[in-house]
Design a protein that fits this description.
With 500 residues, this protein is an alpha+beta fold. It has helices at 3-14, 33-39, 43-46, 51-54, 63-80, 133-145, 148-158, 160-189, 209-214, 225-228, 237-247, 298-335, 339-362, 370-378, 397-416, 461-473, and strands spanning 18-22, 28-31, 84-90, 93-96, 102-105, 108-118, 121-131, 193-198, 203-207, 251-260, 269-281, 287-296, 368-369, 386-389, 394-395, 426-434, 440-448, 477-483, 486-494. It folds into three domains: 3-131, PAS domain (Beta-Lactamase); 193-296, Beta-Lactamase, CATH 3.30.450.20; 302-494, Heat Shock Protein 90, CATH 3.30.565.10. α7 (148-158) packs across α8, α12 (298-335) packs antiparallel against α13 and α15 (397-416) runs antiparallel to α16.
Length: 500
């Protein structure tokens, strides 16, 4: 204790006025001789005892409200760091009787609560209490016995004017308290997170529901930030607070990433915050705390990231599609020197590509089922002439596009030269999954009841497109067999390829 503190303690101890000091738990830590004499207690009786256990305001309908008013004044001094006064409070205290028991005696007090700070943090509150019981009783007695005007005169003589002024101040305080409570309700219900930190260690004084939700509703009241949020160490936020406290300059963060442990023993969870640290200043302009306000923008940030990924993916797919269209145009032009037949073949292949794009759009380009791709590309040839047999097979978007082009070419060739060129022809498409450890799709396109077929004299664009799609785009194998009784195409494609 410094010499100044020692001198102050000695002065308070010698004062004829009643003083006592409480800690943050509202327990007595010291009381001077005048207070002990006034309450007829000893220091051993009081030190370490909660105030409202030693003095509970007694019986009576008013007692709970009187105790609430006194407690609220203490709590306000601790929370704000500012002096809080109660000009007049009715508060009974227990005093010893001749038989050794205690009986409650009505008392009226004028109370001043002064916060005691260390390093900017309220550690204790000093109460200065004046017993005004006799003045209040005299004023009330005069009011009962005399007319109002005479009572006013007596009030002025015996201190009634003083008490009247005190009551006016108390009424104003009650109004201000109501307004303060309204502001506190707004503070607690604010959609953004809010907290008030005090002192150089950034001790949590108050925080609202949104802040509690952000950090997993842990107990942080009265704790320094480094103790309350240990997982944040090393992420820069404590240093930002230190800088704001030291310089008095606010700090603002936008979409700032923080890792929090939102439930006990859980792994760290990344959240993104928009926030500002504002310095709180005292009457002399010194920084005594920091006001924290912000919003959790995690979903907005992640939505933006997803949108960017989708745009990047769209750009990638557009480039691939344009490359496919360019290849189709070049190969179709080589196979159809006549402009009319070129336009017809080129348009048909673009339409086939469009059909598969429509199918993928329905699933947001997450993929398509093999039977759906087959049906989309062959529906124009009659739904009963092509028979699919096989289990559902989920294809990635790239594999779906490749199979769409393959099925289009197979159906087009069958309609021109194979089973679908006559009324009785049929196509059987069956598939299965082999090797469950590394799944491989085996698929057979088999044409029956059509005209006799023979190998072409030269390999056309359709055959080259099929082989290119299978071997290059799907990393698989294909075998084309022009048997006398009908064309057969056999495919073997690994299912872990072409998933994107």
């Amino acid at each position: 204790m410094t010499s100044t503190e020692t001198d102050l303690a000695a002065a308070l101890e010698a004062s004829p006025n009643a003083y006592f000091i409480v800690d943050r738990d509202l327990k007595f830590v010291w009381a001077n001789a005048a207070y002990l004499a006034m309450t007829q207690r000893s220091a051993d009786d009081l030190i370490g005892t909660p105030v409202f256990e030693a003095f509970d305001a007694g019986p009576g309908a008013e007692a709970p409200e009187n105790a609430r008013q006194l407690r609220a004044s203490f709590e306000k001094a601790f929370a704000t760091g500012l002096r809080n006064d109660i000009p007049v409070i009715h508060y009974a205290i227990p005093l010893p009787r001749a038989d050794g028991l205690r009986a409650y005696e009505d008392r009226y007090w004028s109370v001043v609560h002064t916060p005691l700070l260390r390093d900017g943090v309220v550690e204790h509150v000093l109460q200065y209490a004046i017993d005004i019981t006799e003045l209040e009783r005299l004023r009330r007695s005069a009011a009962r016995e005399l007319e109002t005007s005479a009572a006013s005169t007596i009030d002025a003589i015996v201190g009634g004017t003083l008490l009247s002024g005190a009551r006016t101040v108390q009424a104003d305080n009650a109004r201000l308290e109501t307004e303060r409570q309204g502001l506190m309700d707004l503070f607690m219900q604010a959609p953004g997170f809010v907290a008030v930190l005090s002192g150089p260690d950034h001790v949590f004084q108050i925080h609202n529901g949104a802040y509690a939700q952000l950090i997993g509703h842990r107990d942080i009241a009265g704790k320094p930030t480094r103790e309350a949020l240990p997982e944040v160490r090393g992420q820069g936020y404590f240093e930002f607070l230190d800088t704001v406290y030291a310089t008095g300059e606010p700090y603002e963060g936008r979409a700032s990433r923080v890792q929090l442990q939102r439930t006990p023993d859980a792994p760290l969870e990344s959240r993104f915050l928009d926030f500002i640290y504002q310095p709180i200043r005292d009457a002399r302009g010194g920084v005594v705390g920091i006001f924290v306000q912000g919003h959790d923008v995690t979903e907005t940030v992640r939505s933006t990231e997803r949108q960017k990924l989708m745009i990047d993916e769209l750009n990638h797919r557009v480039k691939n599609t344009l490359a496919t269209v360019q290849s189709i145009a070049m190969q179709t032009a080589r196979s159809h020197p006549d402009p009319g037949t070129f336009a017809e073949g080129f348009q048909a292949r673009l339409l086939a590509l469009s059909h598969t794009h429509d199918l993928l759009t329905r699933s947001h380009w997450e993929g398509a089922d093999l039977p759906d791709v087959l049906s989309h590309e062959t529906i124009a040839h009659g739904p009963h002439r092509i028979t699919p047999i096989g289990p559902p097979v989920a294809l990635g978007s790239a594999a779906a596009l490749s199979f769409g082009m393959i099925f289009h070419e197979l159906a087009t060739n069958a309609a021109k030269y194979g089973a679908l060129s006559g009324p009785e022809g049929r196509v059987l498409v069956d598939w299965a999954i082999a090797n469950q450890t590394r799944p491989v799709l085996t698929l057979t396109w088999r044409e029956t009841d059509g005209p006799p077929v023979s190998p072409p004299s030269r390999k056309g664009f359709g055959s080259r497109l099929i082989e290119r799609n299978v071997r290059h785009d799907l990393a698989g194998e294909v075998k084309l067999d022009y048997a006398d009784d009908g064309f057969i195409a056999e495919f073997s494609v690994p299912l872990d390829f072409g998933r994107s």
